[in-house]
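Researcher: I'd like a structural prediction for the single chain below. Treat it as a standalone chain; there are no partners to consider.
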Amino acid sequence: MQKKKWIQHASKPRKKGALHRQLGIPITQKIPIAKLRRIVKTPVGKKVGHHTVTRLLKQRSQFALNVQQRRR
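Model: Treating it as a single chain, here is the predicted structure.
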């Protein structure tokens, strides 16, 4: 039996807003889903806009997309 609120424990509280900080987007604004998808598809080392894609950025973007899909 799985816990209903598993996502609260999936990321550590001190990492809250890390993707926003990494992309330079204020926490009050939503990150565009198209931008997250572009980051996930881009190979590590290439640029998306003015941000270089790193492994950690890809992981955070994929996690954000997964959480977004769960909410629907």
